[in-house]
Write a structure and sequence with these properties.
Helix content is 26%, strand content 33%. The chain contains six helices and 17 strands.
């Protein structure tokens, strides 16, 4: 497991009974987590009086109870600054477990000895984009949601990276990659964080189990002749990391060489020193 253990502005304080107790900067929040299937005693005093709680509804969805938090605030990870905003379906605009990937991205770029062209697909609020840009890469950031791209640009400004060479693209990722292939544009590294389920611009249904392999094959066509790395993230329950390795080895290693490694991502739990699993990642590199 790759553990995101370098945070100062975030930590999982405890987790039990389907929920996790987290510290985001100076604010304590409770959010649901389907991985937390254990029923252990809630010892941490933060459970009794959190600053905010997201509660699931029995009819679907849920709502925030914002007891003592502002509409937005910032947290820092190294030189990066992220704007946090509690939003629909329990999210805050950041996945802290991905910080182990941000470190990997930055190290690969800094050690490459050249300026890499990086493509970030399903790029959300841009944490990986900022990690790559801060390390010296040229980045193309693509997400279908205009609001998420605006949020990513806000994070870039907060991190002092607004003048770095970043292309901000609002587009369907599949359509964008298809156009890049026709344009003959190539990238030295690709980061992708595809959703488990979604709909395309014309109502096409995206289901990760059905579409991921074809999408990875498509993306391989925009890799340069001297590629550096590819990252594939998955939050689909039941999709083992070894499945990502098989896809990556089949598509990338068979064509370019190199090797793939996949692991679960995890966050350390302060109360007991264990690690909370948070999805899976595959890293392919040469």
């Amino acid at each position: 497991m790759w553990i995101a253990d370098k945070w100062k502005d975030f930590e999982v304080l405890d987790c039990s009974k389907g929920e996790k107790l987290e510290r985001w900067g100076k604010y304590i929040m409770v959010r649901p987590d389907p991985q937390v299937i254990w029923d252990t005693p809630r010892q941490h005093r933060g459970w009794a009086k959190p600053d905010a709680r997201y509660s699931r509804s029995s009819s679907g969805g849920g709502k925030w109870d914002k007891f003592r938090i502002p509409e937005n605030w910032t947290v820092n990870y190294g030189e990066l600054t992220f704007n946090i905003k509690p939003m629909n379906f329990k999210h805050t605009g950041l996945f802290p477990e991905q910080s182990s990937n941000w470190d990997y991205i930055a190290n690969r770029i800094r050690n490459s000895g050249r300026e890499l062209q990086v493509l970030n697909l399903f790029a959300y609020t841009g944490a990986a984009t900022l990690a790559a840009a801060a390390a010296g890469a040229k980045v193309c950031h693509v997400d279908a949601a205009k609001g998420m791209v605006s949020w990513a640009r806000e994070n870039a400004r907060s991190s002092g990276l607004e003048n770095r060479p970043i292309r901000w693209i609002v587009d369907d990722c599949i359509k964008f990659v298809e156009r890049e292939i026709r344009r003959g544009r190539r990238y030295d590294a690709i980061i992708m964080d595809p959703p488990s389920y979604g709909r395309g611009p014309s109502g096409e249904i995206w289901k990760l189990e059905d579409n991921l392999f074809k999408f990875v094959e498509l993306c391989s066509q925009v890799l340069s002749d001297d590629p550096n790395f590819v990252i594939i993230n998955s939050y689909t329950t039941g999709l083992a990391p070894s499945v990502l390795t098989y896809i990556s080895e089949t598509v990338f290693t068979s064509r370019f060489g190199g090797s793939s490694q996949s692991e679960e991502l995890g966050l350390p739990v302060k109360e007991n020193g264990l690690a909370l699993p948070c999805g899976a990642t595959c890293r392919w590199s040469i």
